[in-house]
Amino acid sequence: MLGLQFETETSWADIAKVNLQQILTDHAFLEQKAASNAVSIIINYSEETELVKEMSNIAIEEMQHFKMVHLLMVKRGMVLGREQKNDYAVRLQKFFPKTKDRTNALIQRLLVAALIEARSCERFKVFSENMEDEELQKFYKNLMISEANHYTTFLQFARQYQDRAIVDEKWNALLAFEAEMMKERGTLAKIHG
């Protein structure tokens, strides 16, 4: 369903499980960044009413996810750690050439956001299916569904703003790039690590 061209090994889930505070801290900040991205799209494309409505919903939902992860950490006696750089998102953003064309810039941004959500969804699935902790298992299974919805929303909007064949060509190129990038990953207790 997600169209990802590289599957996460279950060994990543084992690394994440033994570094639970690290993975939860990383996850919390990713939710915050996702909310910030949705707000930034609203600011930069405020004339796009339907997009603004949907990005508002996503921003609120992502901040709710941030709060949920943080509360889970507090419940377990953990403290939210410091934010760390997300080189995964940075590398994806650099895939597309810079453009001054607002429509192309929006499509690129939507495709990158779609891919980040798709990979998060896939990682949450792997994590939930390889977790003995029932609370975390259920928590990540529920979040997986939400991330899948965000992925499809971003991709649908990209296809709405430009010819689908052109968008799909860009999407497939981005997927191939990300698959190669993911072959080097899977060794860190980070959602995209």
TrEMBL record:
GO terms for biological process: tRNA modification. It holds the Pfam family MiaE. It comes from the Bacteria. GO terms for molecular function: tRNA 2-(methylsulfanyl)-N(6)-isopentenyladenosine(37) hydroxylase activity. InterPro entries: Ferritin-like, Ferritin-like_SF, tRNA-Hydrxlase_MiaE. This is tRNA 2-methylthio-N6-isopentenyl adenosine(37) hydroxylase MiaE. It comes from Polaribacter porphyrae.
